[in-house]
Amino acid sequence: MPRMLAPAFQGSPHAHAPASTPPQFVPSPLATQTTAPMYQCPAPGDGSAAQLIWCCGAHEHAAEDMLFLHFSVQAAMEPVSTTFFDNTSAFTRWLFSQPRGSVTPSSIVIVGWRQAKPVAHAIHAARTGDTSLLRHDLQRPELSHVQPPGSDHPASTAVHAMIVHVPEPSQGSVRAFRWASEDGVRLTGLGIEVTLSIAALEMSVRGHLG
Fold first, then answer.
1. What are the φ/ψ torsions at residue 164 (nearest 5 degrees)?
2. 81 pairs with which residues across the strands?
3. Annotated region Disordered: where (predicted)?
4. Quick check: is 140 in a domain?
């Protein structure tokens, strides 16, 4: 039976703490190595557990939301791994290292409103090979080759779904809904959802895990 893993919160991305560890955020040895090779998530499409990928910034309730969602989904449904990226550049580097093409997407990406556009640009680049919308980043690896060569275009990526989580509704949430239904869909090819509470986020994630 798979071990239950608790997500850590410092660094990009993070290792996990075993279930015997109290629910707290544990420092990762990668915390000071944001520029080093750090792609340690299970490869999408290899039959491993689904992944929750967080790139929400450090808003007031980010830590609590991440822990709650991880344990709630794990207890109610199936094993799931959780990884936190503290900036969109780290997420993009991870995504570029993942297989493209003939893969089964297994990652649900949860982003804040400020991170939504850069993350969508990264997904667009992974799907199409067009990196013109990305910020300059000397540490970003080259996109992995589409496998098998000649696969459908746009290519399938590690990302199964994208959710924009706006836990403190404001005028930004209105903009998020509009962007998700227009530019977000066009860039990512995904039906992007916007959630305004942890309860709505949990429902959305469970729906994707089905």
1. -95, 115
2. 51
3. 10-29
4. yes
Query: Tokens 């750090």 sit at which residue?
Result: 38
Residues in the chain: 210
- Check which CATH number belongs to the domain holding 189 and give it: 3.40.50
User: 120-178, pLDDT tens digit by residue?
Assistant: 999 999 999 999 999 999 999 999 999 887 766 899 999 999 999 998 777 778 999 99
Tally DSSP H helices, then E strands, for the chain: 6, 9
My answer on whether omega of the bond before 105 falls inside 30° of 0, hence cis, is no
What is the residue range of 187's domain?
Answer: 52-209
Owner of token pair 């990264």: 122
pLDDT of residue 152: 67
Residue 17 belongs to some domain of the structure:
no
Over the chain, what is the mean pLDDT?
Answer: 79
DSSP three-state, residue 79: coil
b/e string for 38-65 if b means 16 or more Cβ within 10 A? beebbebbeeeebbbbbbbeeeeebeeb
Residue pointed to by tokens 């977000």: 184
Task: Tell me, yes or no, if the pTM score tops 0.85.
Answer: no
| DSSP 8-state class, residue 31 | T
Give the single-character DSSP code of 183. Answer: I
Q: Amino acid letter at 161?
A: A
124 within 8 A of 95, measured Cβ to Cβ: no
Domain presence at residue 16: no
Residue 160 covered by a domain: yes
Count Cα neighbours of 37 within 13 Å in the Cβ-side half-sphere.
Answer: 2
Segment 47-73, tens digit of pLDDT: 456 899 999 876 667 778 898 999 998
